[in-house]
Design goal:
616 residues, alpha+beta, 6-stranded mixed β-sheet, 5-stranded mixed β-sheet, 15 helices, 38% helix, disordered N terminus
Amino acid sequence: MRDGEGDMKSEDRIVGIDLGTTNSEIALVIDGRPVVIAFEGETIMPSVVGLSPDGQVLVGTAARNQALAYPGRTIKSVKRYMGSDVTLQLGERSMTPPEVSALILEELVRRARIVTGSPVRRAVITVPAFFNDAQRQATRIAGEIAGLEVVRVINEPTAAALAYEGLEGRERLLLVYDLGGGTFDASLVRADGELVEVLASHGDTRLGGDDFDELIAAHLAEVVGTAKDGKPNDAPLADAVTRARLIEAAERAKKELTESMSVRIREEFVLDGRHLDYELSRVAFEDHIAALIERSLDHVHETLAMAGKRFSDVDDILLVGGSTRVPLVGRRLAEIFGRPPRRDMHPDLCVALGAAIQAANIEGRASQRVLIDVTPYSFGPSYIGTRNGIEDPHCYHPVIERGTPLPTRRSDSYYTVYDEQDTVEFRLYQGESPNALDNIEIGEFKVSGLSKVRAGNEIVCEMQLDLNGQLIVTAVERSTGLKKTVTIEGATKDYDPAAVAASRAKNRELRRAAWDGDDDDIDEIDNFDDVVDVGDVDRGAAASAADSAATASQDVFARLRALCASVRNAALDDAARSDANELCEEADDAIARHDEKAAAAVADELEDLLHYASDA
């Protein structure tokens, strides 16, 4: 398969992956247009992993189909556990969330490789905008376990905005309402031709269609579990198989109620020989989930407030995620915005399509649509200060504030508190509360060997947040230049390369355990685990390094384009504006000459200009 815009083989391509709570997709730009890869007629793969009774790994529809009979051997909605320390049981086997997600990614890649006829090594993977650092890093780890180089992690609403085909012409303000199976994001996006700029994002990583299903399943449990004396009990939900049946029935009812005003729910022998025969109306269903929809709208309000916008400022409302098919969602959005949301994008596919567009942008193959994303969280260290008139060692003020365009670099100064203090300890947090203990601690480090001078020795804390959301923190003693730098790895702190390799071997052994195919097929499974395919070893390390270098080069130019777009939209005084215009001209020249070194230098200068402008 070849792309109509050049002679780059598909084996050199970067794919876009939507790793969803309920479903996942993989996409590629072909002949200038993003396409979701269909395998045996299926474009949407359930994000479900199972272990059959004979020990065979099942991923996708086959795993979902066995969930009712074998709930203890099936894992659904693993995305909700990403970034946590929980251990999931797949039959008798214990697995981490990244290991389970890696099996989903491996199946997507396997399908893409069969369809395209070439290996897939690199990917752009999407995550909810409100995923924190640990959750994003866990997603990267899943990709590494699956043998992928994750060249970029981008936010799902941002990807959806990239896929929106109404960006030509005048500037438009878009509200992306992304309600999936397990997460919710609201993002405000300014789109103007080739510029797509995220102004603000807010959301909830524990709000989605799964919660609708849980509420209705609990209601059905009350119906079938009501004893003869009229008192309800929770016995149906205590049994794993019965619980799985009720959740499945609730999900089917939810889908039918998108088209019908009522649905008949029938399940035989649900509890103690009793059957469930119950009619659920759309009105009753909406009553059950209304509070969750209102919760999502609270995040919409917060997003608009963060950007300083009103409902009337929004030109279009884009619906993303399968749960937006629930009629109540469209009605409530229409009520508060005064017009209905658009439904001309496929809610299940648009995120994968946008990821493919971003992948093609990184490759330099698509139209150079400039993407400017923002951080949904604030970051900073705790410090000893005064709060509410009382000295407090847990004061917090963000160095990087939420809503800041990426990539960014910000700094702030802190001071030693006693004479001859030669060590300072930085505890780093993510959050908005002035009390550091109310935020999420994401790391810590010490700087030793400071000058033994009087109290008030200035230590500058600089934070850099890149396009993938990776945070790099540097502390510098201003008087001497003594510095220490730490990369906040979030979930990767327990996942060094050896641990990734061990998880990859564990997944391979799991897939091989019940293999009944021929030797060639099992060799194919082994090859699938390698970052470099056995069939391509003659390309060697030099080719692999060249691939990585090409990706890094494209990242430099993508970063430069994003910074130029940020500068053009920034509020600058006359002198800074003049400097910005000159730098943008230099940027255009560096891009035209494909001068990576010059591009990196101009990008650093633009970052400095934005940094000092924000501090002014």
